[in-house]
Amino acid sequence: MSHGPLMLDLAGTSLSPLEREMLQHPAAGGVILFGRNYESPRQIAELIGQIHQARRPSLLVAVDQEGGRVQRFREGFTRLPPPAWLGVRYAAQPRQGKRDAELIGWLMAAELRAVGVDFSFAPVLDIDRGISEVIGDRALHASPQVVADFGCAWMRGVHQAGMAAVGKHFPGHGGVSEDSHLALPVDRREVELLLEQDLLPFRRLIDNGLEAIMPAHVVYERAAPELAGFSRFWLAEVLRGQLGFQGVIFSDDLSMNAAHEAGSYGERAALALEAGCDMILVCNDPQGAAEVLQSLEAYSDPVSQMRLIRMHGRRSYRRDQLHLEPKWAEALALVAEFEGNPSLDLNFS
């Protein structure tokens, strides 16, 4: 059985019989984990083992472990600095900043691989324009060049730990104030500005081997009338065509309010896949996920299935031996600096 196109979520810390049945559906392809699924490193490793054993090839397991306020696994994991804290350090000392980025990328990925997570939905490649509350300190910096340089270094560390990277939110969420979880953001900037500035980090990471991208639930009205994740202009013409991206395209969560205008869950799923997404996410709505599974029961895309294989973790760590890794002490020393000075000069309104 190959990877299906749907990534769904779970209600708690163990698999229910209904969830196990849903994971065995041919349209299922992965699971995204949240804080509600986590109790301890041992528990989450057991849960991920059950997910991986549910079928062959094993389902992909992902999590949002960006650092800062978006870190689903906390107790028993290292508290990761927010990207903006690292961006300030990088701008002040680029050479050391690249090493910082590599260390934090490795640390994040190594701890997740030690419990079986295949990948994290990171890094955030949005530009900090000082107006997006939902992005805020999740963005590295206001300079596209700094974001690109840091992102490439961070991705090197992730790759060293045997994990794929997912750049988000293409083509850039930093130019709107609305939170797409709650409303429909509309970016009214000229397309040329987006292509020149916001796409720079995506272009650089693609050129350096970025495996996956997640588009934004944002309408860029001067380019196309639909959300970027439902737009053939952004996904086929720009991302695949102009940028030459050959990796996986994940939709953002189809249960977010910004996606509601696209219709029912089945209609949203069809639109996202037709636009060019390889895998779609439905979170926090089991009935919606069941609707998508039913609507995609006969769906098959061999090209997407080949792309998705690259998202499996490529190296395993023993959690009790992570401290023996050469980068471990250096990475923890960097985290200790954050703990001692967590604010720096972030200048967030």
Automatic annotation (TrEMBL):
Alphabetized UniProt keyword annotations: Cell cycle, Cell division, Cell shape, Cell wall biogenesis/degradation, Cytoplasm, Glycosidase, Hydrolase, Peptidoglycan synthesis
Binding annotation for substrate: D64, R72, R138, K168, H169
Pathway noted in the entry: Cell wall biogenesis; peptidoglycan recycling
PROSITE patterns named among the record's database cross-references: GLYCOSYL_HYDROL_F3 (PS00775)
Gene Ontology biological process terms in this record: carbohydrate metabolic process; cell division; cell wall organization; peptidoglycan biosynthetic process; peptidoglycan turnover; regulation of cell shape
Signal peptide range in chain numbering: none
Enzymatic reactions: Hydrolysis of terminal non-reducing N-acetyl-D-hexosamine residues in N-acetyl-beta-D-hexosaminides
UniProt domain Glycoside hydrolase family 3 N-terminal: residue ranges: 18-298
InterPro entries, alphabetized: Beta_hexosaminidase_bac, GH, Glyco_hydro_3_AS, Glyco_hydro_3_N, Glyco_hydro_3_N_sf, NagZ_Beta-hexosaminidase
UniProt family annotation: Belongs to the glycosyl hydrolase 3 family. NagZ subfamily.
Record-given protein name: Beta-hexosaminidase
